[in-house]
Write a structure and sequence with these properties.
The complex is a heterodimer of chains A (112) and B (117). Helix content of chain A is 0%, strand content 57%. Chain A has no helices and 11 strands. In chain A, the strands form 2 sheets. In chain A, strands 2, 4, 5, 6, 9, 10 and 11 form a 7-stranded mixed β-sheet that branches. In chain A, strands 1-3-8-7 form a 4-stranded antiparallel β-sheet, with no helix packed on it. In chain A, strand 5 and strand 6 form a beta hairpin. The radius of gyration of chain A is 13 Å and the shape is globular. With 117 residues, chain B is an all-beta fold. Chain B is 0% helix and 54% strand. In chain B, strand 8 and strand 9 form a beta hairpin. The chains are: A mainly beta (112), B mainly beta (117). Chains A and B meet through strand 5, strand 9 and strand 10 of A and strand 5, strand 6, strand 10 and strand 11 of B.
Chain lengths: 112, 117
């Protein structure tokens, strides 16, 4: 069966520090991968999605970037965090030809 | 225009009763998918149920059913026999296919459901 992992689960970082969040999927090949951010009490905002290694599409201009160095690995990064980057970050995947997105456990980021 | 609209920020239901969470959507696609997710306080988004736009029967998964009214562009979630563990945020979502970029997913703002013992 397929499993999606995210780490770390919780992160507290100072303003201006770098960020690296990792997402990996097991049990499937060639997944579509997605990064979402959820502000407190809000819905989900799509940040990036990827249909293959090295292929990244960005939905909103921002302080963040994404990379997909391996088929089942998706990384969210920032060189310098802002206070507004605080939130709950969720990684999701869909299988080829499948409609349903499955989400990881999320990373709660607080920027102080 | 909003792609997904959930007009109920908060809902209360008595334990063992049924509850309907509303969702309307906006698309000009003929082929699309509709989803409901549950988000408990732990934060994880749990997939509940899926309805394809060409499916003639309403989707059901255990105590969850999706009341799909295509002409009205609504996809309401019905939870039967509510349990205390159903207390959570519920999100409606839609998948559209966009030329050259593939599938796009849109989420509503969510409904907070509280089950009262």
């Amino acid at each position: 069966s397929q499993t999606i992992h995210q780490w770390p689960a919780t992160l507290v970082q100072p303003v201006g520090s770098p960020l690296s969040l990792e997402c990996t999927v097991e049990g499937t090949s060639n997944p579509n991968l997605y990064w979402y951010r959820q502000a407190a009490g809000r819905g989900l905002q799509l940040l990036f999605y990827s249909v293959g290694i090295g292929q990244i599409s960005s939905e909103v201009p921002q302080n963040l970037s994404a990379s997909r160095p391996q088929d089942r690995q998706f990384i969210l990064s920032s060189k310098k965090l802002l206070l507004s980057d605080s939130g709950f970050y969720l990684c999701a995947w869909t299988g080829r030809g499948s409609d349903t997105q499955y989400f990881g456990p999320g990373t709660r980021l607080t920027v102080l | 225009a909003q792609k997904i609209t959930q007009t109920q920020p908060g809902m209360f239901v008595q334990e063992k009763e049924a509850v309907t969470l509303d969702c309307t959507y906006d698309t000009s696609d003929q082929s699309y998918g509709l989803f409901w997710y549950k988000q408990p306080s732990s934060g994880e988004m749990i997939f509940l149920i899926y309805q394809g736009s060409y499916d003639e029967q309403n989707a059901t998964e255990g105590r969850y059913s999706l009341n799909f009214q295509k002409a009205r562009k609504s996809a309401n979630l019905v939870i039967s026999a509510s349990q205390l563990g159903d207390s959570a945020m519920y999100f409606c979502a839609m998948r559209e296919h966009v030329v050259n970029t593939g599938n796009q997913f849109y989420f509503g703002t969510g409904t907070s459901l509280t089950v009262i013992p």
